[in-house]
Amino acid sequence: MQVSPMVQVFGMVTVVTAAMLYSVHLGFFDSVHTEIGRQFYAERYSAKWRKIFPPWLNMPYNAFVNIGYVILGAFYCAKTSVALGIKQIKRSDSFLFYTFSIMSTFYGAIQAVRILTQFHRAAVMDQWYTLPFFMWVYIWSRHLDSGIGSKSVTFWTTISLLSYLLTLVHKYGFELALALHIVFAVYGAVTIYRKFPIKEAQQPFVWALICCIGFVVLKLLDLELPKINQMFEKISGHFLSKIADIFQIYFVNKYFEVLTLHKNDRERKKSK
How confident is residue 1, by pLDDT bands cut at 50, 70 and 90? Predict the structure, then answer.
């Protein structure tokens, strides 16, 4: 009996994630610079929350927002299964959708652990897991452009994971690696749009780019925004950056959904 693509992808993502966790557990990245402690977050624990939540849940907004990643990942896994079932997408297409969506669910859990524990190794894992997301956009673009084999997927994923070694060389190694990944992602997305320049893909591309900027800028302004208005001590820049990130993942999914359906529809018409 053939194993479903979602089960296969879940297994592969789990293995890679476990390997990353084990590497972090061994202490390979203990010297990496991370921001640990409440002083790096603008969200303040109000008296109202003290009556409801236990002391360890002292940033409820920043903690609960990560549920959004899990919900979105589960939603797109279900949507991919439906599209595959009615043959809107190919089996090879589904691997890309499933991988991105399952990574999203894992990412939500990883970020929640960082917020709740404020452990250095949890922060390392949070940083490291961010990078493959952006590389996957480039891989996805290559898949739609001319196809991409498993060896190429493995190569680019490995390059993405190894780029985190920059954090051992420089204090801002993660920021450099992230910037390079964002450039790769935008380049891939633009390249594939030039091949399939359809109007329906314009809006999700623009919104994904706006959300990407929001994800970066709002996080950087986390401690500055409360100086403008105390509201940002509750609805903080960090919280808003995660909202932007969740929508970024949604619009990336939407962008590639539109392009994949267009490509497959065009190929079906040509084969008739």
Answer: low
For 193-206, how does the pLDDT look when each residue is reduced to its tens digit (9 = 90+)? 999 999 999 999 99
Which of 159, 106, 133 lies closest to 215, judged by CA?
133
Q: Closest Cα partner for 5 from 128, 93, 109?
A: 93
| Tokens, residue 10 | 């879940």
Is the distance from CB of 140 to CB of 188 less than 8 angstroms? yes
Burial 216-234 (b: 16+ CB within 10 A, else e): bebbebbeebbeeeeebeb
Average pLDDT over residues 164-193: 94
For the chain, where are the alpha helices, taking DSSP H only? 5-25, 47-52, 60-64, 67-85, 91-117, 120-146, 150-162, 173-195, 202-220, 237-271
- Joined together, the tokens standing for residue 175 give 């920021």
Model confidence pTM above 0.90 = yes
Q: Is residue 169 helix, strand or coil?
A: coil
User: What are the C-alpha distances in Å from 249 to residues 49, 112, 197, 219, 223?
Assistant: 30, 17, 21, 17, 25
CA dihedral sign, ordered 125, 63, 211, 77: positive
